[in-house]
Amino acid sequence: MGKLDGRVVLITGAARGQGEREARLFAAEGAKVVLADVLDAEGQALAKEIGPDAALYVHLDVGEEEQWETAVADARGRFGKLDGLVNNAGILRYNELVNTPRDEFMEVVRVNQLGVFLGMRAVVPELVAAGGGTVVNTASYTALAGMPFLTSYAATKGAVLAMTRVAALELAEKNIRVNVLCPGAVDTPMTNPALLDPGADAEKAAAESESLYRRMVPLGRIGRPEEVARTALFLTGDDSSYVTGQPLVVDGGWLAGIQVFS
User: Fold this and answer.
1) Spans of the chain, pLDDT less than 50
2) Cα–Cα distance, 118 to 163 (Å, whole number)
3) What is the dihedral of CA 241, 243, 244, 247, to 10 degrees?
4) Separation of alpha carbons 246 and 83, rounded Å
């Protein structure tokens, strides 16, 4: 018996990184997974690998309302219902506050904040029709603590946290739980672009990353995407049946306080 037997869950940003690990884990735990992304080749390949009985790939730009409508309809058409959503898609831009162009700021808002809003609004009626369900939004450590050069990113992740709390209050009576993941640094292509660059010195990048996070994170390392996926599984499954409206921090202890070195 899997932890998600009988569930149908849509996961955004599912073609790689945390979303890919979530899709693989959820399918392994018995769920039918709808993989949504703009990276069509990678997403289609992952759906094929998981298998047509358990996975469907849909092209979805999370900032486009009409594409959400199509994705939800496709999910219902293939699997008959939808009773889970993981809003994982997101983008990251580094810049100083005073040097952040308006268009860059709004680009991050469009994906990270508007995408989560549109996703919840599109999927909730399906969860109601299914008799209840779960929403797992993805915020960040930066929704709870400041970090230089991440004005646009932190602003959107703070908004995701706030929207999650409101949605949890509104939807509790409909048997829908809404929670939010707040990962710290996780070793994915978004935080480590060298993973996507065949010309990069991967060993050097890995060594620099290891040294940095050994100093900054109490557990002494960067997080792994499968660790975030397991937390998303917890919030989606019955093990968290009495948890809603909550941020769950997955950061190796980073938020606990300041490390002091001799």
Assistant:
1) 195-197, 262
2) 11
3) -140
4) 19
pLDDT value of residue 185: 86
Residues 6+ apart with CB under 8 A from 134: 83, 84, 85, 127, 176, 177, 178, 179, 235, 236
3-state secondary structure of 198: coil
Tell me the C-alpha distance between 50 and 209, whole Å.
31
- 225-229: long-range contacts (C-beta < 8 A, 24 or more apart)? 225/17, 225/18, 225/20, 225/21, 225/186, 225/187, 225/188, 226/21, 226/25, 227/186, 228/18, 228/21, 228/22, 228/181, 228/183, 228/186, 229/18, 229/21, 229/22, 229/24, 229/25
Amino acid at 22: E
- The structure tokens 């450590």 sit at 141
Element (H, E) at 250: strand 247-250
Six-digit token string for 89: 């898609």
Closest CA to 247 of 139, 133, 166: 139
Q: What average pLDDT is seen over the chain?
A: 92
CA 21/CA 55 separation, integer angstroms: 14
- CATH 3.40.50.720 positions along the chain are 8-186+224-253
Q: What are the catalytic residues?
A: 153
CB contact at 8 A, 248 and 179: yes
CATH 3.40.50.980 fits 8-186+224-253, yes or no: no
Q: What per-residue confidence (pLDDT) applies to 199?
A: 59
pLDDT given at position 262: 45
Cα–Cα distance, 203 to 29 (Å, whole number): 34
Bridge partners of residue 183, in order along the sequence? 250
